[in-house]
Design goal:
2 domains; Rossmann fold; 8 helices; Arc Repressor Mutant, subunit A; single chain; three-stranded antiparallel sheet; binds calcium ion; alpha/beta; about 20% strand
Length: about 230
Amino acid sequence: MNEKLTVLIIEDEPAIAENLIHVLAMDGYCPQWVATAGEGLAFLKENAVALLVLDVGLPDGNGFELCKTIREFSDLPIIFLTARNEEIDRVVGLEIGADDYVTKPFSPREMLARIKLRIKSRTMTPALAALQPIPTKQLIADNFDYCVNDQKLGLTAVEFKILNKLISVSSNVLSREQLMIAADMAPEAAYERNVDTHIKAIRNKLKPFAMHQRIRTKRGFGYFYSLKGQS
Ligand code: CA
Protein backbone atom coordinates (compact mmCIF):
# COMPACT_ATOMS: atom_id res chain seq x y z
CA MET A 1 0.00 0.00 0.00
CA ASN A 2 2.99 2.29 0.42
CA GLU A 3 3.88 2.11 -3.23
CA LYS A 4 4.04 5.62 -4.64
CA LEU A 5 1.65 6.59 -7.38
CA THR A 6 3.29 7.89 -10.51
CA VAL A 7 2.11 11.23 -11.86
CA LEU A 8 3.42 12.03 -15.32
CA ILE A 9 3.94 15.64 -16.36
CA ILE A 10 4.24 16.39 -20.08
CA GLU A 11 5.32 20.02 -20.16
CA ASP A 12 8.04 21.85 -22.07
CA GLU A 13 8.52 24.72 -19.61
CA PRO A 14 11.00 23.53 -16.96
CA ALA A 15 9.97 26.12 -14.35
CA ILE A 16 6.37 24.93 -14.40
CA ALA A 17 7.37 21.28 -14.34
CA GLU A 18 9.75 21.85 -11.43
CA ASN A 19 7.07 23.50 -9.31
CA LEU A 20 4.76 20.58 -9.88
CA ILE A 21 7.47 18.01 -9.26
CA HIS A 22 8.21 19.68 -5.95
CA VAL A 23 4.65 19.69 -4.57
CA LEU A 24 3.96 16.17 -5.83
CA ALA A 25 7.13 14.74 -4.27
CA MET A 26 6.38 16.54 -0.98
CA ASP A 27 2.96 14.90 -0.95
CA GLY A 28 4.29 11.38 -1.45
CA TYR A 29 3.77 10.94 -5.17
CA CYS A 30 6.38 9.83 -7.69
CA PRO A 31 6.50 12.64 -10.27
CA GLN A 32 7.93 11.93 -13.71
CA TRP A 33 8.60 14.66 -16.21
CA VAL A 34 9.06 14.64 -19.97
CA ALA A 35 9.11 17.67 -22.26
CA THR A 36 7.66 16.26 -25.48
CA ALA A 37 4.53 14.48 -26.64
CA GLY A 38 6.61 11.67 -28.14
CA GLU A 39 8.45 10.90 -24.92
CA GLY A 40 5.19 11.15 -22.95
CA LEU A 41 3.42 8.66 -25.18
CA ALA A 42 6.35 6.23 -24.95
CA PHE A 43 6.36 6.55 -21.14
CA LEU A 44 2.61 5.92 -20.87
CA LYS A 45 2.86 2.78 -22.96
CA GLU A 46 5.60 1.36 -20.75
CA ASN A 47 4.57 2.45 -17.25
CA ALA A 48 1.64 2.44 -14.85
CA VAL A 49 0.67 6.07 -14.38
CA ALA A 50 -1.99 7.23 -11.90
CA LEU A 51 -2.56 10.62 -13.52
CA LEU A 52 -1.27 12.74 -16.38
CA VAL A 53 -0.73 16.49 -16.35
CA LEU A 54 -0.67 17.46 -20.01
CA ASP A 55 0.42 20.77 -21.48
CA VAL A 56 -1.55 21.80 -24.57
CA GLY A 57 1.32 23.54 -26.38
CA LEU A 58 4.20 21.08 -26.84
CA PRO A 59 7.23 21.37 -29.12
CA ASP A 60 6.35 18.27 -31.14
CA GLY A 61 2.57 18.44 -31.19
CA ASN A 62 -0.45 19.59 -29.29
CA GLY A 63 -1.89 18.15 -26.11
CA PHE A 64 -5.38 17.71 -27.54
CA GLU A 65 -4.10 15.41 -30.28
CA LEU A 66 -1.98 13.51 -27.78
CA CYS A 67 -5.00 13.13 -25.47
CA LYS A 68 -7.02 11.57 -28.29
CA THR A 69 -4.21 9.10 -28.97
CA ILE A 70 -3.92 8.22 -25.27
CA ARG A 71 -7.67 7.66 -25.00
CA GLU A 72 -7.36 4.90 -27.58
CA PHE A 73 -5.53 2.74 -25.04
CA SER A 74 -5.97 4.30 -21.59
CA ASP A 75 -8.61 5.96 -19.45
CA LEU A 76 -6.21 7.38 -16.87
CA PRO A 77 -7.19 10.79 -15.43
CA ILE A 78 -5.81 13.66 -17.52
CA ILE A 79 -5.56 17.30 -16.42
CA PHE A 80 -4.80 19.78 -19.18
CA LEU A 81 -2.48 22.72 -18.66
CA THR A 82 -2.68 25.66 -20.98
CA ALA A 83 -1.43 29.20 -21.26
CA ARG A 84 -4.43 30.17 -23.30
CA ASN A 85 -7.37 31.25 -21.23
CA GLU A 86 -10.02 30.52 -23.77
CA GLU A 87 -13.32 28.83 -23.16
CA ILE A 88 -13.03 26.99 -26.48
CA ASP A 89 -9.92 25.18 -25.20
CA ARG A 90 -11.74 24.14 -22.07
CA VAL A 91 -14.65 22.74 -24.03
CA VAL A 92 -12.42 20.95 -26.53
CA GLY A 93 -10.31 19.54 -23.70
CA LEU A 94 -13.25 18.07 -21.84
CA GLU A 95 -14.91 16.81 -25.00
CA ILE A 96 -11.91 14.78 -26.06
CA GLY A 97 -11.71 13.05 -22.72
CA ALA A 98 -9.78 15.24 -20.27
CA ASP A 99 -10.91 15.11 -16.65
CA ASP A 100 -9.95 18.65 -15.69
CA TYR A 101 -8.40 21.78 -17.05
CA VAL A 102 -6.04 24.30 -15.43
CA THR A 103 -4.96 27.63 -16.91
CA LYS A 104 -1.46 29.02 -16.42
CA PRO A 105 -0.37 30.65 -14.27
CA PHE A 106 -1.69 28.38 -11.54
CA SER A 107 -0.95 27.77 -7.90
CA PRO A 108 0.93 24.46 -7.47
CA ARG A 109 -1.04 23.85 -4.26
CA GLU A 110 -4.32 24.20 -6.08
CA MET A 111 -3.04 21.95 -8.82
CA LEU A 112 -2.03 19.36 -6.22
CA ALA A 113 -5.53 19.48 -4.71
CA ARG A 114 -7.05 18.83 -8.14
CA ILE A 115 -4.61 15.99 -8.85
CA LYS A 116 -5.48 14.33 -5.52
CA LEU A 117 -9.18 14.71 -6.17
CA ARG A 118 -8.95 13.14 -9.65
CA ILE A 119 -6.85 10.22 -8.44
CA LYS A 120 -9.15 9.65 -5.49
CA SER A 121 -12.34 9.73 -7.54
CA ARG A 122 -10.81 7.30 -10.01
CA THR A 123 -9.70 4.80 -7.39
CA MET A 124 -13.09 5.10 -5.66
CA THR A 125 -14.84 3.70 -8.71
CA PRO A 126 -14.54 -0.03 -7.89
CA ALA A 127 -15.89 0.55 -4.37
CA LEU A 128 -18.83 2.48 -5.77
CA ALA A 129 -19.44 -0.21 -8.33
CA ALA A 130 -19.80 -2.71 -5.49
CA LEU A 131 -22.75 -0.71 -4.18
CA GLN A 132 -24.63 -1.05 -7.44
CA PRO A 133 -27.34 -3.72 -7.65
CA ILE A 134 -25.95 -7.13 -8.56
CA PRO A 135 -26.71 -7.77 -12.22
CA THR A 136 -29.50 -10.21 -12.90
CA LYS A 137 -28.26 -13.76 -13.19
CA GLN A 138 -28.48 -14.93 -16.76
CA LEU A 139 -29.57 -18.22 -18.15
CA ILE A 140 -27.55 -18.81 -21.28
CA ALA A 141 -28.54 -21.47 -23.80
CA ASP A 142 -25.60 -23.66 -24.73
CA ASN A 143 -25.74 -26.82 -26.80
CA PHE A 144 -29.26 -27.89 -25.71
CA ASP A 145 -28.63 -27.03 -22.10
CA TYR A 146 -28.74 -23.85 -20.07
CA CYS A 147 -25.82 -22.33 -18.17
CA VAL A 148 -25.63 -20.01 -15.19
CA ASN A 149 -22.20 -18.44 -14.65
CA ASP A 150 -20.73 -21.05 -17.04
CA GLN A 151 -22.20 -23.93 -15.03
CA LYS A 152 -24.49 -26.25 -16.92
CA LEU A 153 -27.85 -27.15 -15.43
CA GLY A 154 -27.68 -30.67 -16.89
CA LEU A 155 -31.15 -30.59 -18.42
CA THR A 156 -32.67 -33.54 -20.28
CA ALA A 157 -33.88 -32.93 -23.85
CA VAL A 158 -37.49 -32.55 -22.70
CA GLU A 159 -36.55 -30.24 -19.82
CA PHE A 160 -34.47 -28.10 -22.16
CA LYS A 161 -37.31 -27.74 -24.64
CA ILE A 162 -39.78 -26.81 -21.91
CA LEU A 163 -37.49 -24.22 -20.33
CA ASN A 164 -36.50 -22.88 -23.73
CA LYS A 165 -40.15 -22.44 -24.67
CA LEU A 166 -40.98 -20.69 -21.39
CA ILE A 167 -38.06 -18.28 -21.76
CA SER A 168 -38.82 -17.62 -25.43
CA VAL A 169 -42.29 -16.26 -24.66
CA SER A 170 -40.93 -14.28 -21.67
CA SER A 171 -43.66 -13.82 -19.10
CA ASN A 172 -46.58 -15.25 -21.10
CA VAL A 173 -48.39 -18.19 -19.56
CA LEU A 174 -48.21 -21.49 -21.44
CA SER A 175 -50.63 -24.36 -20.92
CA ARG A 176 -49.39 -27.87 -20.21
CA GLU A 177 -50.55 -28.86 -23.68
CA GLN A 178 -48.51 -26.08 -25.30
CA LEU A 179 -45.47 -27.14 -23.33
CA MET A 180 -45.93 -30.79 -24.34
CA ILE A 181 -46.07 -29.77 -27.99
CA ALA A 182 -42.99 -27.58 -27.58
CA ALA A 183 -41.15 -30.49 -25.98
CA ASP A 184 -42.14 -32.96 -28.75
CA MET A 185 -43.42 -35.33 -26.11
CA ALA A 186 -44.71 -38.60 -27.52
CA PRO A 187 -48.51 -38.90 -27.40
CA GLU A 188 -48.41 -41.86 -25.05
CA ALA A 189 -46.25 -39.83 -22.65
CA ALA A 190 -48.51 -36.89 -23.05
CA TYR A 191 -50.38 -37.03 -19.83
CA GLU A 192 -50.50 -33.46 -18.78
CA ARG A 193 -49.26 -34.29 -15.28
CA ASN A 194 -45.98 -35.41 -16.87
CA VAL A 195 -45.31 -31.75 -17.57
CA ASP A 196 -45.53 -31.05 -13.86
CA THR A 197 -42.86 -33.67 -13.22
CA HIS A 198 -40.54 -32.05 -15.77
CA ILE A 199 -41.20 -28.59 -14.33
CA LYS A 200 -40.32 -29.92 -10.89
CA ALA A 201 -37.06 -31.34 -12.25
CA ILE A 202 -36.19 -28.03 -13.93
CA ARG A 203 -36.88 -26.13 -10.69
CA ASN A 204 -34.62 -28.53 -8.79
CA LYS A 205 -31.81 -27.87 -11.26
CA LEU A 206 -32.28 -24.11 -10.89
CA LYS A 207 -32.38 -24.28 -7.10
CA PRO A 208 -28.59 -24.28 -6.50
CA PHE A 209 -28.53 -20.92 -8.29
CA ALA A 210 -31.53 -19.60 -6.32
CA MET A 211 -33.38 -19.22 -9.61
CA HIS A 212 -36.10 -21.87 -9.17
CA GLN A 213 -38.74 -19.25 -8.45
CA ARG A 214 -38.40 -17.99 -11.99
CA ILE A 215 -40.62 -20.86 -13.11
CA ARG A 216 -44.03 -19.77 -11.88
CA THR A 217 -47.28 -21.66 -11.73
CA LYS A 218 -50.46 -20.02 -12.98
CA ARG A 219 -53.15 -22.04 -11.28
CA GLY A 220 -55.68 -23.50 -13.67
CA PHE A 221 -53.66 -22.45 -16.72
CA GLY A 222 -50.05 -23.58 -16.75
CA TYR A 223 -46.62 -22.09 -16.27
CA PHE A 224 -44.65 -18.96 -17.06
CA TYR A 225 -41.12 -17.65 -16.72
CA SER A 226 -40.62 -14.49 -14.66
CA LEU A 227 -37.68 -12.35 -13.60
CA LYS A 228 -39.80 -10.12 -11.40
CA GLY A 229 -38.69 -9.90 -7.80
CA GLN A 230 -35.95 -12.47 -8.41
CA SER A 231 -32.23 -12.22 -7.98
CA1 CA B 1 4.05 24.63 -23.56
